[in-house]
Amino acid sequence: MYEELKKEVQELKHDVNHLKEQQSLQTICLKGTKAINKCFLSISEPKNYHQASDDCIAQGGTLSTPDTRDENDFINDYVRKSLGVSSEIWIGINDMANEGSWVDMTGSQIFFKHWATGATFEPNGGKQENCASLSAAVDGKWFDKSCKEELPFVCQFAIV
Protein backbone atom coordinates (compact mmCIF):
# COMPACT_ATOMS: atom_id res chain seq x y z
CA MET A 1 0.00 0.00 0.00
CA TYR A 2 2.86 2.38 0.80
CA GLU A 3 4.36 1.84 -2.67
CA GLU A 4 1.00 2.58 -4.32
CA LEU A 5 0.65 5.78 -2.33
CA LYS A 6 4.20 6.78 -3.19
CA LYS A 7 3.49 6.15 -6.88
CA GLU A 8 0.28 8.25 -6.76
CA VAL A 9 2.14 11.12 -5.09
CA GLN A 10 4.81 10.99 -7.82
CA GLU A 11 2.13 11.04 -10.52
CA LEU A 12 0.42 14.01 -8.84
CA LYS A 13 3.74 15.88 -8.65
CA HIS A 14 4.28 15.22 -12.35
CA ASP A 15 0.75 16.45 -13.19
CA VAL A 16 1.16 19.60 -11.09
CA ASN A 17 4.52 20.39 -12.73
CA HIS A 18 2.97 19.88 -16.17
CA LEU A 19 0.12 22.25 -15.29
CA LYS A 20 2.61 24.85 -14.02
CA GLU A 21 4.51 24.63 -17.32
CA GLN A 22 1.29 25.06 -19.31
CA GLN A 23 0.22 28.02 -17.16
CA SER A 24 3.63 29.64 -17.59
CA LEU A 25 3.41 29.17 -21.37
CA GLN A 26 -0.09 30.67 -21.41
CA THR A 27 1.23 33.72 -19.56
CA ILE A 28 4.03 34.07 -22.10
CA CYS A 29 1.55 33.73 -24.98
CA LEU A 30 -0.66 36.41 -23.41
CA LYS A 31 2.29 38.81 -22.98
CA GLY A 32 3.64 38.04 -26.44
CA THR A 33 1.95 36.53 -29.45
CA LYS A 34 1.11 33.10 -30.81
CA ALA A 35 1.45 31.59 -34.29
CA ILE A 36 2.58 28.48 -36.11
CA ASN A 37 2.43 26.25 -32.97
CA LYS A 38 4.77 28.61 -31.12
CA CYS A 39 4.55 31.53 -28.75
CA PHE A 40 6.86 34.48 -29.23
CA LEU A 41 7.89 37.03 -26.62
CA SER A 42 9.94 40.12 -27.45
CA ILE A 43 12.55 41.33 -24.97
CA SER A 44 13.50 44.98 -25.44
CA GLU A 45 16.57 44.97 -23.16
CA PRO A 46 19.62 44.71 -25.43
CA LYS A 47 21.95 41.81 -24.63
CA ASN A 48 24.79 40.09 -26.41
CA TYR A 49 23.92 36.90 -28.29
CA HIS A 50 24.91 34.50 -25.50
CA GLN A 51 23.10 36.47 -22.79
CA ALA A 52 19.98 36.65 -24.97
CA SER A 53 20.12 32.92 -25.61
CA ASP A 54 20.59 32.18 -21.89
CA ASP A 55 17.66 34.47 -21.05
CA CYS A 56 15.34 32.58 -23.43
CA ILE A 57 16.51 29.20 -22.10
CA ALA A 58 15.92 30.33 -18.50
CA GLN A 59 12.30 31.06 -19.48
CA GLY A 60 11.87 27.64 -21.10
CA GLY A 61 12.37 28.66 -24.73
CA THR A 62 15.07 29.49 -27.25
CA LEU A 63 15.97 32.45 -29.42
CA SER A 64 13.44 32.67 -32.24
CA THR A 65 14.51 30.78 -35.34
CA PRO A 66 12.35 31.28 -38.43
CA ASP A 67 11.91 27.99 -40.30
CA THR A 68 9.89 29.37 -43.23
CA ARG A 69 9.24 32.63 -45.07
CA ASP A 70 5.81 32.88 -43.41
CA GLU A 71 7.34 32.48 -39.95
CA ASN A 72 10.06 35.03 -40.76
CA ASP A 73 7.38 37.48 -41.95
CA PHE A 74 5.37 36.84 -38.78
CA ILE A 75 8.39 37.48 -36.51
CA ASN A 76 9.26 40.59 -38.52
CA ASP A 77 5.71 41.97 -38.12
CA TYR A 78 5.75 41.15 -34.39
CA VAL A 79 9.13 42.90 -33.95
CA ARG A 80 7.87 45.98 -35.80
CA LYS A 81 4.78 46.15 -33.54
CA SER A 82 6.44 45.28 -30.22
CA LEU A 83 9.92 46.83 -30.54
CA GLY A 84 9.64 49.37 -33.35
CA VAL A 85 9.87 49.54 -37.13
CA SER A 86 13.64 50.06 -37.16
CA SER A 87 14.47 47.34 -34.61
CA GLU A 88 17.03 44.64 -35.15
CA ILE A 89 16.95 41.45 -33.04
CA TRP A 90 19.06 38.37 -32.46
CA ILE A 91 17.73 35.18 -33.99
CA GLY A 92 18.78 31.67 -33.04
CA ILE A 93 21.17 31.11 -35.94
CA ASN A 94 24.97 31.13 -35.84
CA ASP A 95 28.10 29.74 -37.50
CA MET A 96 30.32 29.68 -34.39
CA ALA A 97 31.31 26.03 -34.73
CA ASN A 98 32.13 26.04 -38.44
CA GLU A 99 32.57 29.25 -40.44
CA GLY A 100 29.92 29.54 -43.15
CA SER A 101 27.85 26.60 -41.83
CA TRP A 102 24.83 28.31 -40.29
CA VAL A 103 22.92 26.24 -37.72
CA ASP A 104 20.02 26.71 -35.32
CA MET A 105 20.15 26.55 -31.51
CA THR A 106 20.21 22.73 -31.56
CA GLY A 107 23.20 22.68 -33.90
CA SER A 108 21.05 21.50 -36.83
CA GLN A 109 21.65 22.86 -40.32
CA ILE A 110 19.13 25.50 -41.36
CA PHE A 111 17.30 25.18 -44.65
CA PHE A 112 15.36 28.44 -44.79
CA LYS A 113 17.60 31.51 -45.22
CA HIS A 114 16.69 35.18 -45.59
CA TRP A 115 20.04 36.97 -45.82
CA ALA A 116 20.19 40.57 -47.00
CA THR A 117 21.90 40.15 -50.35
CA GLY A 118 21.28 43.58 -51.89
CA ALA A 119 24.01 46.10 -51.10
CA THR A 120 25.83 44.14 -48.38
CA PHE A 121 25.90 40.53 -49.64
CA GLU A 122 25.23 38.98 -46.21
CA PRO A 123 26.60 37.01 -44.51
CA ASN A 124 29.78 38.96 -45.05
CA GLY A 125 31.56 39.17 -41.70
CA GLY A 126 33.70 36.04 -41.85
CA LYS A 127 35.04 34.84 -38.51
CA GLN A 128 34.35 38.24 -36.91
CA GLU A 129 30.56 37.94 -37.25
CA ASN A 130 29.14 34.57 -36.24
CA CYS A 131 25.64 35.42 -34.99
CA ALA A 132 22.55 36.28 -37.03
CA SER A 133 20.13 39.14 -36.61
CA LEU A 134 16.79 39.99 -38.22
CA SER A 135 16.20 43.60 -39.22
CA ALA A 136 12.65 44.95 -39.15
CA ALA A 137 13.88 48.02 -41.03
CA VAL A 138 14.94 45.85 -43.98
CA ASP A 139 11.83 43.67 -44.38
CA GLY A 140 13.01 40.95 -41.96
CA LYS A 141 16.29 40.35 -43.79
CA TRP A 142 19.16 38.71 -41.90
CA PHE A 143 22.61 40.08 -41.15
CA ASP A 144 25.65 38.45 -39.56
CA LYS A 145 27.00 40.38 -36.59
CA SER A 146 29.57 40.11 -33.85
CA CYS A 147 28.04 38.02 -31.08
CA LYS A 148 29.31 40.64 -28.61
CA GLU A 149 26.98 43.34 -29.95
CA GLU A 150 23.92 44.00 -27.83
CA LEU A 151 20.48 43.74 -29.46
CA PRO A 152 16.93 43.11 -28.29
CA PHE A 153 15.61 39.64 -29.07
CA VAL A 154 12.55 37.42 -29.37
CA CYS A 155 12.23 34.12 -27.51
CA GLN A 156 10.13 31.30 -28.95
CA PHE A 157 8.32 28.60 -27.04
CA ALA A 158 6.89 25.41 -28.51
CA ILE A 159 3.20 24.85 -27.85
CA VAL A 160 2.69 21.22 -26.83
UniProtKB/TrEMBL annotation:
Which is a Gene Ontology cellular component entry for this protein?
extracellular space
Task: Write down the species.
Answer: Pyxicephalus adspersus
Q: Where does the source fall among the domains of life?
A: Eukaryota
List the Pfam families hit by this protein, alphabetically: Lectin_C
Q: Which PANTHER family match?
A: TETRANECTIN, TETRANECTIN-RELATED
Protein name as it appears in the record: C-type lectin domain-containing protein
- Tell me which Gene Ontology terms the entry assigns under biological process: bone mineralization
What GO molecular functions are on record for this protein?
carbohydrate binding
